[in-house]
Amino acid sequence: MKSSVVKRSIMVGDHKTSVSLEEAFWTATKEISGQRNMSLSDLVSEIDHNRQHANLSSAIRLYVLAFFKNYAAGVITKDHGISVARKVSPD
Hints:
two-stranded antiparallel sheet; 2 strands; 45% helix; Aryl-sulfate sulfotransferase; RHH_dom; RHH_sf
């Protein structure tokens, strides 16, 4: 069975590196960069700069997961703005 993980090259800052990602994560990363009006390279550079203890491929997966969890929870909006949710009292 062929692996769904594909190795891709990308510029991170001023150097070229490779990441191994499933197609779904690669597509989601491109969608997020488009929503944020930034290049894919700039988004991956930001993820690389802010990651802790994970390799870059894992950091991208975790970023994508967090982004869509926050989107589903209404913490971020489609235009990537921050939404302030208010608790509604059951009175």
